[in-house]
Automatic annotation (TrEMBL):
Residues 37-65, 200-221, 317-388 are annotated as: Disordered. This is Electron transfer flavoprotein alpha-subunit. CDD domains: Ribosomal_L1. It comes from Talaromyces stipitatus (strain ATCC 10500 / CBS 375.48 / QM 6759 / NRRL 1006). Residues 37-48, 200-219, 319-342 have a biased composition (Basic and acidic residues). Gene3D superfamilies: 3.30.190.20, 3.40.50.790.
């Protein structure tokens, strides 16, 4: 339980407030990793079964947790991210890789034909240690044909640790792989393995309507050295999948990281998001937190201003002046929530009320007539009914 007087976030001592406080990031990283470790130790003490989740081959040191829990960075923006170019899956380079295991199983999804990429991986110029970790290369056409059912996709997901995909088909995989992939932490990471044609140092744009021949498609892939470099780069990056919303989550580490390693990855991801992916940069950031898979989120940065531009703020005096001008001009103010249906409903209510008033008037007239008639009958002489 955090003490009431303890400060959760601190401001930078000098310079712009739109920057991370290194001490705060390190404090939050240490507290989060310590909490995850204590939770795991408590679960292991209360559980009678041995923990089988995680990469136990890397946790040989003392005090390291038995399971490898993912640590996420959660960034909240003031306005939605709506740019389609920013919403395309991408990646950010980080100093400490999330995929450094030597027993990593990599599945490479590529554009057709897949045989060209298989030849690249099997080429002698391709690094042998990297080719040993690539256990499957599959083209988009065969992926659609072989993995139609939910069970087959789930099996494919469980057989591999990392999925890399050609950036030319990355947007088409959402429908092909389905929610079993995109609700997990194994979403395909885009890589560029296309051969880039350049003329005078500039990239030559291809006609999207032109259909390349089979030979041209085979030659459209880069050399083995370039492909290997792109794969290594993707393994040393944090994948970024933005959504058209105000919240973005990026995997920045695991419970096996040290606080210093986690803090360095957090700073790298925050800088990458604000510089490339978030429109308006730091001005559009509302809050930054880090959290585990089942833990509470710890704040590492909070914005003082909840608006993006000064034009979004309406002063109280201006608001009262506009209200006064509307009243003076005779324009009746209407609440923003009032629509045409509510106005129509108001008219119906008035009609019903008017009809009710008419009924009340007619009823009063009838009662008055009956009262007058009763009074006249009371004035008439009453005949005696007594018998003599």
């Amino acid at each position: 339980m955090v003490a009431a007087t303890e400060v959760l976030t601190t401001k930078v001592a000098s310079g712009t407030p739109y920057q991370l406080d290194n001490k705060q990031v390190l404090r939050a990283s240490s507290a989060l990793l310590r909490h995850i470790k204590s939770e795991q130790e408590e679960k292991e003490e209360t559980s009678t079964k041995k923990t089988l989740i995680g990469d136990d081959d890397e946790s040989d040191g003392e005090g390291s947790p038995a399971t490898n829990e993912i640590v996420w960075l959660v960034m909240t923006t003031k306005k939605h991210v709506v740019d389609k170019n920013r919403l395309k899956p991408s990646k950010i380079s980080i100093p400490h890789s999330l995929n450094k295991s030597s027993s990593l199983n990599i599945c490479l999804i590529t554009a057709d034909p897949q045989r060209s990429v298989k030849d690249i991986v099997a080429d002698p110029a391709f690094p042998s240690d990297l080719s040993a970790r690539i256990t499957k290369v599959i083209g988009l056409t065969k992926l659609k044909d072989r993995y139609k059912s939910f069970e087959s996709r789930r099996q494919l997901l469980s057989e591999h640790d990392v999925f890399l995909a050609d950036d030319r088909i990355i947007m088409r995989l959402v429908e092909t792989l389905g929610k079993i992939f995109y609700q997990s932490s194994k979403r395909p990471i885009p890589i560029r393995i296309e051969q880039i044609e350049k003329a005078d140092g500039k990239r030559v744009k291809k006609d999207p309507k032109a259909k390349p021949s089979k030979e041209e498609r085979k030659a459209s892939f880069a050399s083995p050295q370039v492909v290997a470099k792109e794969i290594e780069k993707a393994l040393n990056c944090a994948p970024v999948y933005l959504a058209p919303s105000t919240t973005t989550s990026v995997r920045v580490g695991s419970s096996k990281f040290t606080p210093e390693q986690l803090a360095e990855n957090v700073k790298a991801v925050v800088n990458g998001l604000t510089e490339k992916f978030i429109s308006k940069g730091w001005r559009n950031v509302k809050a930054i937190h880090i959290k585990g898979a089942t833990t509470m989120a710890l704040p590492i940065w909070l914005a003082d201003e909840l608006w993006l531009d000064e034009t979004d703020v309406l002063e109280k005096e201006e608001d009262e002046k506009k209200a006064f001008d509307n009243d003076k001009s005779g324009n009746k103010r209407r609440n923003p929530g009032d629509d045409d249906s509510s106005r129509g409903q108001g008219k119906k209510t008035k009609k019903i009320k008017a009809a009710t008033d008419e009924d009340d008037i007619s009823l009063k007239e009838k009662l008055q007539k009956r009262k007058a008639q009763a009074l006249e009958e009371g004035k008439a002489p009453v005949k005696s009914t007594k018998k003599k």
